[in-house]
Amino acid sequence: MVVVVPLDCFSFYHCLRNHTTHLPLYSRSSTTTSTLCFRPPIIQAKLPFFTNSDSFQVGRPIGTYGFINVTSYSSFSSGPGTDYSIEDLGGLKTQDVGEGNVKIRLYEGRVSRGPLNGTPVTFKVYPGRRAGGVVADALAANELTTHLFLQSSSKGIAQHLVLLVGGFETATGEQWLAFRDDGKYSVADYAKIVSERLSKNREVSSWNPFEQGLTIKRRQNFIIKLLQGVMKGLAYLHDHDRLHQSLGPFSVVLNTISEKEGSNLIPRLRDLAFSVNVRYTELDASGQLAEGLWRRASAAGAFTQMEKRAFGIADDIYEAGLLFAYLAFVPFCEAGVMDSLSLQRLLENTFRLDLEATREYCLADDRLVNAVEFLDLGDGAGWELLQAMLNAEFRKRPTAEAVLNHRFMTGAVL
């Protein structure tokens, strides 16, 4: 993805402080709901939204991440990532891979005034135009406008999307977005922790078969509920004519990673900086952040507005399918046996998205037996759904709602 965006038509500052009569913002003494105007129609934030840095207290730094740009291989999706370096991508011989210039910092914090006083938040800090150029500014603006649009929905706030509670720009030009803290762990964190735990347990010869079976059963239930939450969040986005476009293990946050507390699990989608508006009236004005998507759409034979919109939705489903595959394998394998890039190469390069052939290969590897058994549930229902989501023909992929209604996702196979 190569992104060039004119600052004057799509900037964080313009989105946050557009000078119109429709933009009363929070003052230091005011905490009434603000009306934010980015483009017609006016977006009305339904929850308190803070645009002054004095409304927050910043805590300790909790991490950084960036973006990987892939410019020559349509099956590989650009998006946030922190589990591999550029050197780790050396095996992708057919791809032109580069490291994005936008470096994002994360901080703990809390709201310090108003009706949300004391609410824990996670700050996502973009470097701003001075340090990150127009790309950083455009990504921050896109994430801001997308969340405010979704949070203004007449259908209510989505349970499976993170909640934006404020945003502001500092004197140095950094752009801070404040999200309610609904969990510290991502799907990638969860998978890493449980695979490492599996390795340790198997080193203990006294780990009894009953306990092992109970652990696997809990994991199966936990992951299906996790996938249900992901697809509900994606269905909400698509129902509101928005694509995610960077869905992966790091773009889903979990309120718990304890499989014993699976009944309380609420996955939430985050990282909407690459989100694309696919409303028919907006397709031609979707901006240069979506240029890579539309190039791939044209290459796949999608030229009309209806076909382009369908391709975009199917592209999200494909990313969700890769996330499904990741969750079907990595948490069920010992640490180091499988990772996201190795799995993607196996599916796309080695077996050309032939899931039946992939299954035969995995059956021959004892280290993958638990993953195969998971996808075998319901007479192969998991493989069936995964094959549909990763169908090479975008027109044959299911919608998010259809995925949710599949017998594997409903839990009927358990």
From TrEMBL:
Concerning InterPro entries, the annotation shows:
Kinase-like_dom_sf, Prot_kinase_dom
Which GO terms of the cellular component aspect does the record hold? chloroplast
PROSITE patterns per record: PROTEIN_KINASE_DOM
Q: Which domain of life is it from?
A: Eukaryota
Q: Which residues form the Protein kinase domain?
A: 56-409
Example GO molecular function: ATP binding
Name this polypeptide is given: Protein kinase domain-containing protein
Question: Taxonomic lineage of this organism?
Answer: Eukaryota, Viridiplantae, Streptophyta, Embryophyta, Tracheophyta
